[in-house]
Amino acid sequence: MKKILLLSFILSLNFALAQNTILWTIKKDGNPHTSYLLGTYHQMGNSYVDSLTAVTRALKSSDIAIFENTDIGDGLANYLNSRKEDFTYKEKLDKKHLAYLGDISEKWKVPVSKLSPSELLLKIQQTYLETQCGTVKSTDSVKTFDNYLIKMAKLNSVELLGLESNDLMTSYINQQDRTEWKDIKKEIYLWLDNIKMSRDTHIHCGMAEVYKKQKLDYHLNTECAESLIISSRSAVWLPIIEKKIIEKSSFIAVGYAHLTGKCGLISKLRTAGYKVEPVYNLDK
User: Fold this and answer.
1) pTM of the predicted model, to two decimals?
2) What's the confidence (pLDDT) of residue 19?
3) Residue 44 region by backbone torsions, left for phi larger than 0, else alpha for psi between -120 and 50, else beta
4) Separation between Cα atoms, residue 106 and residue 116, nearest integer Å
5) Least trusted range by pLDDT, from 5-9, 152-156, 204-208
6) HEC profile for the chain?
7) Would residue 9 be called left, alpha or beta, if left means φ above 0 and alpha means ψ between -120 and 50 degrees?
8) Beta bridge partners of 161
9) Which of 44, 152, 223, 273 is surrounded by the most beta carbons within 10 Å?
10) What is the mean pLDDT of residues 248-253?
């Protein structure tokens, strides 16, 4: 009985360790192509990506690179800047937080007046990660994981495919349950204070640290909560991804959360008959 329990423990431990990666291979009997699935952490600078030799090698060896959106750099900024200015935020926020928001947004490519409440909250949260969690170094030339991979794909003449347009992506952000100033104002105050006082890093930077160390749990046997921003988008992407991995060697890079749970891309591809296996030692 003790031997059986020990064996069960070892097998469960091996299964848990098998999830400690951010890169997976996708194969299917009868299909000559090997594809790759990468779970990204968007606010991670290029120096971290450069340390992942296996990731960059997989990208360069693929026929096509698939991202959530291939136009999230200057293209997204231009899209947002094409909007009319709206200074409602100056009426909604108190003077103290308004002044600090002006300080931290001074060098943003898109002014606050072009952002919706939900987009502003997201931008402030991203700023927290960049400034408080060490995900971006001062020497990094590119601040986001996805943008750097897109740049690398272009330099290596790898075909690009975006799963969403800027219009569709921002519509998802603005269709969430709480999108009005009255719902979001307190959260905006909280995150501005977190940045100003460099507080709660042990809470808000935990996921960044786990990701950098690749000590992830994908919860592949867990049911997913209904989510417009995660599960709904993954469901739309899945048939597009399946079509491409049948046709050619594909490198798919989407946010880590889209790989998790029973509704995630790993579980869904396995259900469709694909062998989705972890890749270890990404620095080699």
Assistant:
1) 0.89
2) 67
3) beta
4) 17
5) 5-9
6) CHHHHHHHHHHHHHHHHCCCCCEEEEECCCCCCCEEEEEECCCCCHHHHHCCHHHHHHHHHCCEEEECCCCCCHHHHHHHHCCCCCCCHHHHCCHHHHHHHHHHCCCCCCCHHHCCHHHHHHHHHHHHHHHHCCCCCCCCCCCCHHHHHHHHHHHCCCEEEECCCHHHHHHHHCCCCCCCHHHHHHHHHHHHHHHHCCCCHHHHCHHHHHHHHCCCCCCCCCCCCCCHHHHHHHHHHHHHHHHHHHHCCEEEEEEHHHHCCCCCHHHHHHHCCCEEEECCCCCC
7) alpha
8) 66
9) 44
10) 98
Model confidence over 96-121: pLDDT tens digits?
999 999 999 999 999 999 999 999 99
Residue given tokens 């519509």 in the structure block: 171
pLDDT over 70 at 175, yes or no: yes
Structure confidence by residue, pLDDT tens digits, 31-57: 999 999 999 999 999 999 999 999 999
Residue 4: pLDDT over 70: no
- The overall average pLDDT reported for the chain is 91
Closest CA to 158 of 77, 79, 251, 72: 251
> How many other C-beta atoms can be found within 10 angstroms of the C-beta atom of residue 217?
11
- Torsions phi, psi for 121 (to 5 deg): -60, -45
Across 247-273, average pLDDT: 97
| Nearest residue to 250 via CA among 107, 85, 61 | 61
User: What percentage of residues in the chain have a pLDDT greater than 70?
Assistant: 93
- In angstroms, the Cα distances linking 43 to 19, 122, 132, 148, 163 are 21, 12, 12, 11, 19
Distance between CA atoms of residues 125 and 187, nearest Å: 10
How far, in Å, CA of 153 to CA of 140, rounded?
18
- Sorted by where each begins, the domain ranges of the chain are 22-278
